[in-house]
Amino acid sequence: MIQKKDSFEDRRGKVYEIAGKCCRDIVLSPIDVSDAECLIYASGELDELIETSHLKYMGGGK
Q1: DSSP string, 1-62
Q2: Which of 6, 14, 55, 61 is the most exposed place for a label (fewest CB within 10 A)?
Q3: Nearest alpha-carbon partner for 26 in 14, 38, 35
Q4: pTM, whole model, 2 decimals?
Q5: pLDDT digits (tens, 9 = 90+) for 43-60
Q6: What residues contact 52, with CB distance under 8 A and at least 6 apart?
């Protein structure tokens, strides 16, 4: 199960971590502090992105 602070890398090499939830959706925030673009996905969408290699799981929370 994924949890807060787990990190993911997209196909462009940008790294995001789980910042938390908004309602039932999962909010990913960029690790790069100069990037303010967050991503919001439903749990099923996040699973699908991992399965299709659009996002790569990088590891657990700190």
Answers
A1: ---TT-EEEETTS-EEEEEEEETTEEEEEESSTT----EEE-HHHHHHHHHTTSEEEEE---
A2: 61
A3: 38
A4: 0.86
A5: 899 999 999 999 999 988
A6: none
